[in-house]
Amino acid sequence: MVLRLSEKETDMEDKLSASISYLQKLGPEYINQVFESSRWIFEQDRDMAFQIFTSVNVELPRTQVTDCLNKIDPALSARHIEYLIAEKEEASPAFHDRLAELYLNMTLSARKGGDEAKQSEVYSKLLRFINTADHYLPDRLYGLLPENLYEARAVLLGRMGRHDHTLELHVYKLRDYVKAEEHCKRTYNPNTVARSIFLTLLKLYLRPTDKTAPNLLQPALDLISRHSPRLDTIETLQLLPPLVTACDVRSFLQEALRAPIFDSHVVRDIHKARNEQVARKLMLLETRRFRVTDSRICPQCHKRLGTSVIAVHAPRGEVTHYQCRDAFARALNDPTR
């Protein structure tokens, strides 16, 4: 019947339109006929053929239509589910799970076939879907993912509340520190356990669990400068390595000092860090040696040093008589000198 209708038309678009119009009027009792007759239309023009299953007058069983289209091309099946979700407000987890799985299988198929453009396109759809949809089961999809789809794994782990593992993937596998920070911003809640999410990320930077991780001090300092109000002051100071100076975390310290209650432990840790810096400078100075000969002249009084008690001046290491040290130090610090 469908072919006879199309034979009356000479223009291909008119032929297809007549057949599509006829099939759109057939109800569920003729579903097998619709499937069989739609195949040749799909061979001619997929976009036009797809209209058969988007009729506003008659709706065919959704699952059977999805199965039929999947046999023709999984991309058509995915398109049909996209239509159901967008236009028919389909909220069944079965359809949402199936769409995510179709995106995944198409991504892997394109990768296997070496089609990088197709892989990128479909993988982007998968990432967008699992980031925004609410009716699929993350743990089910996670079990289907291969190991090396790190970004998809990170999204699903976050959906399952395993935020520490999400951040590990962003930091150690993807090395995408911006997305790690964005995940923290989406997750942070001062009234739940998620209030420590920024501290978790800071620990991953400064106490790496991956031995192959690069030096992550700079991302750590950037995180501290941007999100100091969301970081526990005591724990942050305890995490910082000794070589970090007060200047490196100035904004963080200023923010902490403005807090209504500034814990004495913070003051203690600041003094400790300062003392460690001074100790390192002293140790460096103590390792330097200076040779004093009979002919060496004191730059202050211009007399020979001889066997007198001497003083060494930082930072360049000038050597003077001990009794000349104060005068020489004043001269060094004189800006007009």
UniProtKB/TrEMBL annotation:
Q: Mind telling me what this protein is named?
A: Vacuolar sorting protein 39/Transforming growth factor beta receptor-associated zinc finger domain-containing protein
Which Pfam families does its entry note?
Answer: zf-Vps39_C
One GO term describing the cellular component:
fungal-type vacuole membrane
Positions of the Vacuolar sorting protein 39/Transforming growth factor beta receptor-associated zinc finger domain: 288-327
Q: Where are the CHCR repeats?
A: 53-210
GO BP terms in the entry: autophagy; endosomal vesicle fusion; intracellular protein transport
Supply the source organism for this entry: Rhizopogon vesiculosus
